[in-house]
Task: structure prediction
Amino acid sequence: MAEQTTKARRALLSVSDKAGLMEFAQGLAAQGFEIISTGGTATALAKAGLNVLNISDVTGFPEMLEGRVKTLHPAVHGGLLADRAKPDHLAAIEAHGIQPIDLVCVNLYPFAATVAKPNVALEDAIENIDIGGPAMIRSAAKNHSGVMVVVNPDDYTPLLEEMAANGGTVSLATRRQLAAKAYAHTGQYDAYISQWLNQRFAKEEGNDTPDFPQELALGYRKAQDCRYGENPHQRAAFYVQPGVTEPCVANAKQLHGKELSFNNIYDLNAALETAKEFSEEAQPCAVIIKHTNPCGVALGDTLAEAFLKARLGDTISAFGGILAVTRPIDVATAEEITGKNTFFEAIIAPGYEAEAIPILTERKKWGANLRLLELGDLKGWRANAAATGADYKRVTGGILVQTPDHIVVTADDFKVVTERTPTQDEIEELLFAWKVMRHVKSNAIVFTKNRQVLGVGAGQMNRVRSVRLAVEQAGEEAKGAVMASDAFFPFPDGPEAAAKAGITAIIQPGGSVKDQETIEVANRNGIAMVFTGVRHFLH
Result:
């Protein structure tokens, strides 16, 4: 396709986000563009002193149906879609009195911002689905050899600069880049609408989660480029879903430190999702994550105590980890964090006392780079009560989609299968261990005592190896502790190893053909064991 170098003469501007609009329009006017606009955009430009041709003067029709119809007209789309390289196209639009439109600047109705509002009415959401905007964007992008299409305010200044340097023209390469961005913009917009409507309609029909659609649309937007991926030779970026209100890494505010890396973001998510399990507890909770696995989790009478207990769960693994807490970080906790031989990559918390921030960022040489993230109050956002979206796992050539693992297990769900029934304190400890265990990679084993993680076995190919790792880490502290397992024991060797270490109670799903042998091991050692009937594999 031959590169088009004809100077642009008409620009159609119709935007919801008016950031940078006035300067862009003034720059276009200086380049000799006639400005066409619609509704509120036309009003704003006119108030700024620009000469604006109203869209109704172009189409010969007034805006109709409360603004639903204003640009859906041959005078607009004929001017956008006419191929400048085809004389018959140009003759056709001339015969109908249609002038070419050489630049389209459109961004869309704020659907994501609308549906993020609490208790948004379906009617309000529907009214914020843009129709004319995507149609103009797609028409301009299709005909990008002759039409420039701009959907992102970040492109305003570079585009004007290229025009100024090249006599009012831009290269075909620039037009192609803008066209690709335009289709990504409309694709993301439509995908998010599809996701939201599926979820909304499912809820109105009494379903917590929608059915899996035949065609999967993913509506995400880039939040940042990462310096690299899991390894330095890999490129990476972080994409977020618009409109999410649940406290999460995607909408956390970074207060201090270096830019988040790919691994930081992944580990921060693991830390926060574990912490959410305990956001409704009367006691504060501290969670330390290393390579997405909890290596320390504890409750305490104070946040400082919770942190110290969490760190003591595995002081070696805690070094270079990620810390998440369920209460604002106070001075006492900041003192403990910086007073130990521990280095953290990042901390995510509901907030920070003003006096705590300089302690964290100035006391240690690593403080200048320490990433501090702020979330706001976590109460009301317990992980297993805040099922949003779906869980995705990529495979080569495809993607697996599942509902989130947010099932709630309470003491009422326990089935006691041993001669000894767990005490009330053991029941509470078993629930604590169970909540932690669901965030550990399979095969997952967790030992806890006094609401403190003492030993973890994660990611092993056999379950008894995970038990032995947890025993090794817990050491003598395993005596009097409880054990949680994410799946049943295929053989009694795991419980036997735990019994030798001094475990007093076990929580597991049950369901193995060897369950009776495992029960007999527990009975011989005076261990109380409960089945939940729920498995929590985390691959």
Observations:
- The CA atoms of residues 411 and 427 lie 7 Å apart.
- The two ends are 49 Å apart (CA to CA).
- The chain has a mean pLDDT of 88.
- The first strand starts at residue 10 and ends at 15.
